[in-house]
Amino acid sequence: MASKLHLETALTPDGWRHDLVATIEHGIIARLEPADATNDAVRASGVVLPGLPNLHSHAFQRAMAGLTEHRGSGGEADSFWSWRELMYRFVARLSPDDLEAIAAFAYMEMLEAGFTWVAEFHYLHHQPDGRPYDNIAEMSERIVAAADTSGIGLTLLPVLYRHSGFLGKPTSDAQRRFLNDRDSYARLMETRVPGGNIGIAPHSLRAVTLNDLEWAARTFQGKPAHIHISEQTREVEDCLAAHRKRPVDLLFDTIPVDERWCLVHATHADQNEIARIAQAKAVVGLCPITEANLGDGLFDVPALLAAGGRFGIGSDSLVRISAADELRTLEYGQRLIRRQRNVLAVARRSTGRLLLDGALKGGAQAVDRPIGAIAVGQRADFVVLQDDGYRDDAVLDHWLFTADNAAIKTVYRGGIPVVQQGRHRDRDAIVARYRKSLVGINIAT
């Protein structure tokens, strides 16, 4: 059954428009036309933006937020690699019920923060002792259920994870919940995602062999494809030692990389690698808050944009969930390293508009769904900001650099409100289940 929404002010591919009526059929914008005095549409009061895709999430890590902000007693500097050991200890405790509860909570927060679609980079497959569940897709189906509970759109990315380092380095016991072979991975790729889609996720070049990578790219050709790459300098050094190539170069020299690929982080890609990414029309998946939290470093965003490259944003470790904060941190990191302002903008254009436009386009491409624009044929996924008196692109600058999540009034998924007055419709029940899980896994120890 069709429904209608009267959009008072909306950001469309043609720019800012006022008083539009969106006719929505099966969650898709079927018509978009000027409002008249007799229209019977429900009024979406405020400034209406397309919902943002979150192109990289590890949902279970939401329950770790705040538990790793201390330094170990050893003499070595704290780093991504020491953080990873803490993550391994944490993940050993999680049951299927825990995962579903934590993921539903994280996805609820994403909706409240302006994300309406999530690409879940899902690598928690097996029981704590490494044995598969009777239903090999048990944990994948819990992610699907959590997305359904929250109402967020889902691109499920089961992770192919086979080794602990380059050239087939054996895994540790701490990684046994992640491991799979080709047969079990193919079965995971049969997981149904109603209303969403599924893609491949070779974890990283250190976790799969080049033969595994070629197999996955060939077998599941045409699906979204995401991979961690060049996040850490040690990863680059190990790749050079094993293959005499840098990670992005090795990826491109092994398989055809095109617009269906999302290269997550790519923090330490050099100028030649950045040029290759841009030329292939692949998306760089940037996760600025997590990259700052882990001390990863800063990707050269201006070089990517100068080459005509594409980017999107993700929440990764979910230490904080905020579309505005991810985009603000992206720009601020570039300001700090260059000691300039408005680094990612162009002359006489709003920085907020450039950031939002880029994240919408790149994110929609990375999840391969008709989202990220208020236009006919696109999903009716909207974020409505409070009308605080700002106009046109100043609305975006105010949201991204000043107001953050507090500016979000309503969020629609397929034309249906899932967040109203900044609060998810099922917040109380989702939070209660999440807190029960935290007690069960004794998260404080």
Tell me what you see in this structure.
There is one protein chain. Helix 3 (138-150) links the parallel strand 6 and strand 7. The protein is α/β, with parallel strands linked by helices and 445 residues long. The protein folds into two domains: 3-49 and 374-429, Roll (Urease, subunit C, domain 1); 52-367, Metal-dependent hydrolases (TIM Barrel). It has 14 helices and 17 strands. The protein has helices at 80-91, 96-112, 138-150, 182-188, 210-219, 233-243, 247-254, 271-280, 288-293, 301-306, 323-338, 351-367, 393-403, 427-440; strands spanning 3-12, 15-25, 28-34, 42-50, 52-57, 115-122, 153-160, 197-198, 201-202, 225-229, 261-265, 283-286, 310-313, 382-385, 408-413, 416-420, 423-424. The strands form three sheets. An eight-stranded mixed β-sheet has the order 3-2-1-4-14-15-16-17, covered by helices on one side. Strands 5, 6, 7, 8 and 9 form a five-stranded parallel β-sheet that branches. It has a four-stranded parallel β-sheet with strand order 10-11-12-13. The relative contact order is 0.16.
Question: Which key phrases capture this entry?
Answer:
445 residues, alpha/beta, Urease, subunit C, domain 1, TIM Barrel, 2 domains, 8-stranded mixed sheet, 5-stranded parallel sheet, 36% helix, globular
- Mean model confidence by pLDDT: 95
How many individual helices?
14
The spatial strand order of the largest sheet comes to: 3-2-1-4-14-15-16-17
β-sheet strand percentage: 15-25%
Q: What's the CATH architecture of the largest domain?
A: Alpha-Beta Barrel
| CATH fold title of the largest domain | TIM Barrel
Gyration radius (Cα, Å) is 21 Å
- CATH class group of the largest domain: Alpha Beta
Number of DSSP-assigned strands: 17
**Total domains:** 2
Structural class: alpha/beta
Low-confidence stretches: none
Helical coverage, percent range:
25-40%
CA distance, first residue to last residue: 51 Å
- Principal-axis shape: globular
CATH homologous superfamily classification of the largest domain:
Metal-dependent hydrolases
Largest sheet: 8 strands, mixed
